[in-house]
Amino acid sequence: MTRPLPSWNDGPSREAIIAFVDSVTHEGGEGYVRPDERIAVFDNDGTLWAEYPLYVQIHFALAQVERLAGADPALLARPAFRAMVENDLKTLQSLPKRQVLEPAFAVHAGMTIDSFRATASEWLAQARHPRYGRLFTRCIYQPQLELLDYLRTNGFKVFIVTGGGVEFVRVVSQQLYGVPPEQVIGSSTRARLELGEGRADIRKLAELGSFDDREEKAVNIALHIGRRPILCFGNSDGDVAMLRYTLAGPGPRLGLLLHHDDAQREAAYDRQFLVSPLAEGLDRASDYGIGLVSMKNDWNKVFA
Amino acid sequence: MTRPLPSWNDGPSREAIIAFVDSVTHEGGEGYVRPDERIAVFDNDGTLWAEYPLYVQIHFALAQVERLAGADPALLARPAFRAMVENDLKTLQSLPKRQVLEPAFAVHAGMTIDSFRATASEWLAQARHPRYGRLFTRCIYQPQLELLDYLRTNGFKVFIVTGGGVEFVRVVSQQLYGVPPEQVIGSSTRARLELGEGRADIRKLAELGSFDDREEKAVNIALHIGRRPILCFGNSDGDVAMLRYTLAGPGPRLGLLLHHDDAQREAAYDRQFLVSPLAEGLDRASDYGIGLVSMKNDWNKVFA
Fold first, then answer.
1. Which of B 192-231 lie inside 8 A of A, CB atoms?
2. Measured between alpha carbons, how far is B294 from B299 in angstroms, rounded to an integer?
3. ipTM score above 0.90
């Protein structure tokens, strides 16, 4: 038999995962959980793929905003758009998640979901991470891919719960993570159905519907999944509410936060990452029963 | 081999279903659809279980509202609540869907989702349909159960898209239809996460989040599922938008409306059912490419 989770080093994180999975799958055991209740939720940015120094979706919006600013100079009056159009990464990196993502969502207002998907798909097929030089779609974490597979092999149903735009992540969720679109929950703009002769399109509107961050992640899990997860994996303070929601249920639970402490292979950041800091998560992890995963110590390989 | 869909009579509806499923599952054929794209959506009230003369959820709210009215007489000032407390079914049957459902949702504002689920579960375990005398949970349609199984056997993933409250339908969706909670989309109130010492509860608020009817059904399908269904089955004008959304996609599509034309075994109603009429659906079915299923002629058995 091959060793499960080969890119995970021996140590408390890997042991906790394997002990948890053994417990919930051991029929007749005290911690046994029926397969249909084995719901696992994963954050995306910084948990499944690289988010530092700037979200993939912001890079995508940057590519779009240039095109749009040519068409509508009025957008420039808004500071976050200006920073985007001027490719002012420093300003963008200094804005909190919502401020930087909201204009990124707004860029696509007025598109149908089908045309948005085609545009995002085309961009993702060729866009490269400025720091690592590889395709963004290759900036995904090998240990996490192994974990997703390991969970599914053990009867888990895996969902992504992301602050990123739900349609954006859905474009690649199946291909990258084996997670089908209907198991992706994310931020969303409002939309409307347009009906015509033999035509029915969903068009994205400018208004934000749900900003899927912090408490809203837990509320959206309840709305979309309808049961409390038993495993939750995140990497920032934006994930702490859904971790606490997961851990507050009865029976065995596992909550993990990935700590980006690996300057050599990826990046070392936490509190000072203004877009999406990890501070409360570090300070309160043990109070909340959350395990901290060290990229540097727990992973023997980073990128897939 | 047993004949598939035994409770369906030979005729155009059964033939259309079988021809459609044969087509999308025939590898190498022109109409082949990959299993992961075989998304089917079903309305619930009037499509999977009886809705006439009053929604199951209204009966549930009636049971609750009596309790609540004792605690808060101010509710009585609102006409729909008054009709509920006075058990004035005639008035309730004369109100459009949204007017009659909104107070039914509001009855449960302030409850946590967990306590709502327990209350609904307890009620559903013993409440009986006033006309048929059997448990509400036995007022489900046998031909539809066969159809759900037939679709799943052929690789479809089945979702319920209901105007009813999403948490209410989730209580029984697995048990009655084999549809897990995460594959139920419905109307919802807003909610908030409450965090305490080792406690994290989702509490339902009074404000309506989504009223899942007509165009909103299609928008919610896009939000929750993220792909266009290839099969849609409804029974009222509230389902026409999602039927048109389904049918407007490329490749083979099937859209069906159940016509309640069976006064002897269930009920005969369409335009005159004020809560949820079927009028546009009857008038425009052939323009839209929607097939009409006759309960009277197409089904040799009604209830499971």
1. 192-193, 195, 198-202, 209, 215, 218-219, 222-227
2. 7
3. yes
Query: Do the Cβ atoms of A191 and B225 come within 8 Å?
Result: no
Collect all residues with Cβ–Cβ distance below 8 Å to B165 and sequence separation of at least 6. B57, B101, B104, B105, B108, B186, B187, B188, B189
Chain B residues touching A192 at Cβ < 8 A:
215, 219
CB contact under 8 A, B181 and A226: yes
| E-state strands within chain B | 39-42, 157-165, 184-196, 199-210, 231-234, 254-259, 291-294
User: B184 at the A interface (CB within 8 A)?
Assistant: yes
Distance of alpha carbon B237 from alpha carbon B227, whole angstroms: 22
Give, in order, the Cα–Cα distances in Å from B85 to each of A269, B89, B96, B100, B103: 58, 10, 18, 13, 11
| Cis bond before residue A277 (omega within 30° of 0) | no
Q: Whose CA is closest to A114, among B13, B211, B218? A: B218
Neighboring chain A residues of B174 at a CB cutoff of 8 Å: 36
pLDDT tops 70 at residue B37: yes
Q: What would the pLDDT profile of A25-81 be if each residue is shown by its tens digit?
A: 999 999 999 999 999 999 999 999 999 999 999 999 988 887 667 767 777 777 788
